[in-house]
Design brief:
alpha+beta
């Protein structure tokens, strides 16, 4: 093979790559994509927790080594650990939840990836009917998968409760 053949092959690959590259998103496209991602999170993603089915929840996450999840000081280092944690919590009989997306910020990286940061509020109800209010600071990295999105990285934390009010000390007696 001659050097000329190698250069011709490389040039053909570069031309083909240039033809398939998409132009960058303009502001209108970026806004539309951010809005659709916010609707995806507020809609189908949070709705799956109302009457949780572990497999339905896991369908929103990328399987494989690229998945990374951290929650309240715990790192789930693999897809298998995310599956185990999801089954342990959401697989309990009678557990339901309702969540609302608030203060969402969607950072569109490109057509194929975005980062969502938001406050999620709601409550989880256990099988005994005891409801626990929740307020969660949530960040997720999304990657396009077919016609939808998959979470490839996520961090969720529950902010500490506000400090308890300290009762006022009675005024000292004067003599």
């Amino acid at each position: 093979m001659t050097l000329r053949t190698v250069f011709a092959g490389v040039a053909m690959v570069l031309v083909a790559a240039g033809c398939t590259a998409r132009p960058p998103l303009d502001d209108q496209q970026r806004t539309a994509l951010a809005d659709s991602i916010e609707q995806w999170v507020a809609g189908p993603y949070l709705a799956v927790y109302q009457h949780p089915n572990v497999d339905s929840i896991l369908a929103f996450y990328a399987s494989g080594a690229e998945l990374a999840v951290a929650a309240n000081g715990t790192i789930l280092p693999s897809y298998d650990s995310v599956v185990a944690a999801t089954r342990a919590f959401w697989g309990r009989p009678g557990v339901t939840a309702h969540f609302t997306l608030g203060n969402a910020h969607v950072n569109v990286l490109d057509r194929e990836a975005a980062v969502v940061t938001a406050m999620v509020t709601g409550a989880v109800k256990d099988s005994a009917g005891v409801e626990t209010p929740m307020r969660i600071a949530w960040t997720a990295v999304l990657q396009r998968a077919g016609s939808g999105w998959k979470i490839v990285a996520q961090h969720a934390s529950v902010p500490p409760p506000p400090p308890a009010a300290v009762p006022a000390r009675p005024a000292a007696r004067r003599r």
